[in-house]
Amino acid sequence: MSDSAPALAARPATRTNPLAHTVTHTATRASSPPPYCGRFAPSPTGPLHLGSLVSALASYLDARAHRGRWLVRIEDVDGPRSPPGVAEQILLALQRLGMHCDEAPLWQSRRIAAYEQALAQLTQAGMIYPCACSRREIADSLAFRQQRLDHPLRHATLTYPGTCRAGLHGKPARAWRVRVPEDVERAQVRFEDRWHGPVEQNLATEVGDFVLKRADGQWAYQLAVVVDDAASQVTHIVRGADLLESTGRQIYLQRLLGLPTPAYLHVPVVENAAGEKLSKQTGAQALDLDRPMQMLHLAARHLGLPHSVCADSIESFYAAATQAWAARHGATELRHETPGARPKT
Ligand SMILES: [Zn+2]
Q: Fewer CB atoms inside 10 Å of the end CB: C or N, the chain?
């Protein structure tokens, strides 16, 4: 087929875009940037551990260094994986560690209507199609394509081969996918990460058309994050580097939906002895909340903050850590891309 996907250039936001709560930023862009807003967005699959504390602390310090707002969003859109009570435990742990959010937490499980609205908007724009492939069929199709290449592509197993772009041929729809540009140049997403510098990802060769609504009826992480960050007017995203490879997809969705692109900073993830990212699945221990200072010092050291932030009270810890963070990351100008602000490629 000819490439019907639009280039990555932003679609101009209109006043009728229901998702673009931030539309006024377009009007005020010339005079003042939108006020800083950051967030920490844990999945409540288990209690807070050192890995999630590092992300929480980094986003909190960045917000304080910018004198901005800091929000917490519970990413429980993946209902079955969220045991009851864990989210409340995480919120309590943040409080005991001295991180207080500026608004009531947002729960993704209560945001379904907003995700449906976003999917409807993309459907109307002709960007969504149903997919009947099982994981197995995608793997088989890629293996077949790989055999015909002289130099098999690395990481190609992650790339959806576009099987259902031309229709389902009578098979039942399982998931819903968004089209990415077929043209390799137009599918290139570039952004500046405040920790890693310039980052590029090619959605056509590295990702393929990706799922927004899964075969089990759950909303994909990528869509929920983009819709919620825009609704909360988040200007700065600070999170673990394991999400660096999701950022290209999220920026692409922001542009398709006419939403602003925040600034990004991805901090190094904490690994276990085997070199795996620390998580509940890789055996992360819950934080010892009876020793909050020790936990905070460990996280600060992982973020590369100097030993001088070691303090004997929560208040003095945050004062020193915020200053150290600001010296390293806080001097960045508040940049917040708005739809239409980016030159067309
Ligand atoms: Zn398919």
A: N
